[in-house]
Design a protein that fits this description.
191 residues; mainly alpha; two-stranded parallel ribbon; 8 helices; 4 strands
């Protein structure tokens, strides 16, 4: 849903869209085959990619939307991998120190949109994407990510946040999409 929504919002608001580096990612398929072996490599790749996007955003006057933020990498994905013992403490510490250095150069976004979904919705969306390497994602891993998202959203104070429960929305329906844009308009206009 996040990639589709980002594209729809970019078109609606005439924003540039920056997508997560999934296609052409040299670590993603290997990661899902052996998470412990490839966790650090994958997270460093995503961190580099996301930081490049942040620099691009900050170097222009254009309006952008990203389908995933640099914050999620560190506070959700890498932390989950470390807490699950899929990324060693040494690797996580190295990753976190590198992330913390980068953050001194990062300006927070104007708004974050949290797409909240239950486990069955996430599982269905992953199946619909049809990426072979995602077939073995465990429900426990997805549930853990959902918990990390909930904690992150509850504690994040650097930007305005709106929550869209996509269990109740079909972003392809014009009326549902309009409700989302109204939420965004209110958040950007009135804070």
């Amino acid at each position: 849903g996040k990639t589709t929504l980002a594209g729809l919002l970019a078109k609606h608001y005439d924003w540039e869209v920056l997508y997560e580096a999934v296609d052409g990612n040299p670590y993603l398929a290997d990661f899902y085959g052996d998470m412990e072996r490839w966790a650090f490599n994958l997270q460093m790749f995503f961190l580099k990619s996301r930081f490049s996007q942040v620099l691009e955003i900050q170097e222009t006057n254009k309006k952008y939307i990203q389908d995933r933020t640099i914050y999620e990498d560190a506070y959700i994905f890498a932390k989950n991998l470390n807490d699950s013992k899929l990324m060693s403490d040494v690797d996580y510490q190295t990753y976190k120190e590198f992330f913390d250095m980068m953050m001194s150069l990062v300006q927070p976004p104007d708004l974050m949109i949290y797409l909240k979904a239950d486990l069955s919705k996430l599982t269905n969306q992953i199946k619909q994407r049809g990426r072979d390497y995602e077939n073995n994602i465990s429900p426990e891993y997805l549930a853990s990510l959902n918990n990390y998202y909930e904690n992150f959203i509850a504690e994040f104070t650097d930007a305005k946040i709106i929550t869209v429960n996509i269990n109740d929305f079909d972003i392809m329906k014009p009326a549902d999409f309009e409700q989302i844009t109204k939420m965004i308009d209110r958040a950007l206009l009135y804070g």
